[in-house]
Amino acid sequence: MKVLYVCTELYPLLKTGGLADVGAALPAALQAEGCEVRVLLPAFAAIAAGVRIEGDAMALPAMGGPEVARAPHPAPKILSGRVRATGQAVYLLDAPTLYQRPGGPYLDASGRDWPDNAERFALLGWAAARIGLGADPRWQPDVLHAHDWHAGLAPVYLQLLAGAGPRPGSVFTIHNLAYQGIFPRDALAPLGLPESLFTIDGYEYHGHLSFMKAGLQFADALTTVSPRYAQEITTPEQGCGLDGVLRQRAEQLSGILNGVDYTVWNPARDPLIGTPYDIDRMAGKAAAKQALQGLLGLELRPDALVFGAVSRLSEQKGFHLVPAVLDDLVARGGQLVVLGSGDAGIEAALREAANRHPGQAVLRVGYDEALAHRIIAGSDVLLVPSRFEPCGLTQLYALRYGTLPLVHGVGGLADTVVDSMPETLEHGSASGFVFHAFHTEALRQALHRAFALHQRPARWAGVQGHGMQLRFDWQVAAKAYCALYQRITATPGAACASVEPGPRQSF
Ligand code: ADP
């Protein structure tokens, strides 16, 4: 089975969130299941720098209708190569005027969307479709697997370009439904997208073009990254305005839980923490805590219950609840370490709260891979109070590091953390703390329960040991994706929205 995996981030080359971790681990796991996977990515500078190019570039015709043909962009090229660090086979979509610029992959240096994002990511979908239909004479995929809104047009272009002819199957995976790629209607023509599909059953969303909705309507199969989130997004509360579409396509939608790359996240072999440890030699965890306290200027108190967090600080992640509980947390002898960046208001509120407790609470703003590992190793409890969470990865890393996750019981958090209650403690299945109502008081109660359990060291060690033994293996996920690929390649196009059967579109 040949799979073209289409995404925008790849750990360790370019990462803004979990999408990058998945992009690195899932293709490798699929390969171990016998798939042949190539990853298609925009040639952002950070990605290109980590790839060894092999062979000649393939020229692609310019995308879309006459407007784009006249645009000042040279025709894009596809470069084949391998990630230097891992050997993963990749295609780089080389269009320097679109992808080689300072700032982030989606936002400019001042945090605003790049104004040409519609064109930048439509090109990704379009290139994927071209490869899907044989642009590389040496390699044609059986399945095109597109990830998140950035790749949402791939299934549409695939159908438009294939017309009534044969085509690969398509899978669209939602990593976060809240980011949808919505653009004004006048983006259609430059992208070569027909007005005829600008309907409620196509890619129209309240008078705008939605890349996310395009992926949801035109892919043969839909997945998201946990079973619970797959259910939640079919409800008005969590459907981000697309729950109706998802209910209509419920038979094609499944939740496949993400895994952990235990070659990167393993306390026994983590070069980013000074003191390796594991379930049978936990002294290193106490040393990691002391090192973290020292590094960040916290009081060196072995008995302090250290709460850590590594997160984007967006509305989704729930950190606006934290300042209100900090006084209580510190009064009970706890400490708080937050690493993250994002919403200026949330950052300011956390900073203001942390400044009230010098030596007991600290906020580090920024993105820091090494510090992320040190926090996950050196904390006792990892806070993940997300309002919603498609899967969440940090709680899974925390479990492996003997750091008890304290989470809001939604999405993948609910699927992966078992609350410490009398029955689950008795039964040995408890792995952390879960709160259900999304407000400060519920968070506070969960914190109190963490302090209470910490007073009972044997119980605490039992929960910790159980969490460290759990495994969220990518092979389990890869097997589920392979089974899905088999199903859709048997009958591509059986269940998705389709463009009018007819002649191939000329692009
Ligand atoms: P999301 O993708 O919604 O941001 P996930 O929990 O799925 O959330 O994945 C987040 C990933 O990004 C994890 O690997 C986490 O360790 C990492 N991460 C988030 N913020 C930071 C940060 N400030 N510094 C380092 N790593 C971070």
Q: How would the blueprint of this fold be written?
A:
Elements: E1 2-6, H1 18-32, E2 36-42, H2 45-49, E3 51-53, E4 58-59, H3 66-70, E5 77-83, E6 89-94, H4 96-99, H5 117-132, E7 143-147, H6 154-162, E8 169-174, E9 182-184, E10 204-205, E11 208-210, H7 211-218, E12 221-224, H8 227-232, H9 243-248, E13 253-255, H10 283-296, E14 305-313, H11 323-331, E15 334-342, H12 344-355, E16 361-365, H13 369-378, E17 381-384, H14 394-400, E18 404-408, H15 411-416, H16 422-427, E19 433-435, H17 440-454, H18 457-469, H19 474-490
Parallel strand pairs: 1-2, 1-7, 2-6, 7-8, 8-12, 12-13, 14-15, 14-17, 15-16, 17-18, 18-19
Antiparallel strand pairs: 3-5, 4-5, 5-6, 9-11, 10-11
Residues 17-18, 21, 176, 310-312, 339-341, 367-369, 372, 391-394 line the site of adenosine-5'-diphosphate (ADP).
What does this 3D model show about the protein?
With 507 residues, this protein is α/β, with parallel strands linked by helices. The protein has two domains: 273 residues, Glycogen Phosphorylase B (Rossmann fold, 3-Layer(aba) Sandwich); 187 residues, Glycogen Phosphorylase B (Rossmann fold). 36% of the residues lie in helices and 18% in strands. It has 19 helices and 19 strands. Strands 1, 2, 3, 4, 5, 6, 7, 8, 12 and 13 form a ten-stranded mixed β-sheet that branches. A six-stranded parallel β-sheet has the order 16-15-14-17-18-19, sandwiched between helices. Strands 9-11-10 form a three-stranded antiparallel β-sheet. Helix 5 crosses helix 6, helix 10 crosses helix 13 and helix 11 packs parallel to helix 17. The protein is globular, with a radius of gyration of 23 Å. The relative contact order is 0.12. About 1% of the residues have low confidence. The structure holds adenosine-5'-diphosphate. The site of adenosine-5'-diphosphate (ADP) has 18 residues, from helix 1, strand 14, strand 15 and helix 13.
